[in-house]
Write a structure and sequence with these properties.
Shape: globular
Largest sheet: none
Distance between the termini: 44 Å
Organism: Tigheibacillus halophilus
Strand content: under 5%
Number of strands: 0
Keywords: Membrane, Transmembrane, Transmembrane helix
Number of helices: 6
Structural class: mainly alpha
Protein name: Stage V sporulation protein AE
Oligomer: single chain
InterPro entries: Spore_V_AE (IPR014204), SpoVA (IPR005562)
Helix content: over 70%
């Protein structure tokens, strides 16, 4: 049953993104930013972790989970180190994913010829 809920919740998050493209005519950058901010706001209210517990990968794979990671990192470090922890916590939690994206993007650019 966990696969069903992961598929359903992940699909609903993607449907919201597609609606932002089609109905509101937002650019990919605006949609991406909006989804990250929405994930951060939902996480700030404490609603994202119950969604992750319920839907598993359906809530952790979409881009909204990046906003959740930013907020969770900032809140954890703020409790440990005060106001400066808000800034450092966001980078500490998300740095490995961002670094991997940069490295793999660079390797991909070296191995393949982009079409342009």
């Amino acid at each position: 049953m966990i696969f069903f809920w992961a598929f359903l919740i992940g699909g609903l998050i993607c449907v919201i993104g597609q609606i932002m493209f089609d109905v509101f005519k937002l650019t990919p950058a605006h949609t991406l930013s909006g989804m990250v901010v929405a994930g951060a706001i939902i996480s700030g209210f404490g609603w994202y972790q119950p969604l992750v517990n319920f839907a598993g990968a359906g809530a952790t794979v979409p881009i909204t989970s990046f906003g959740n990671a930013l907020v969770q990192g900032a809140m954890a470090e703020a409790q440990a180190h005060g106001l400066i922890g808000v800034v450092t916590g966001m980078f500490e939690v998300t740095s490995s994913g961002i670094s991997a994206a940069i490295v793999f993007g660079f390797v991909g650019a070296l191995l393949f010829k982009p079409k342009g």
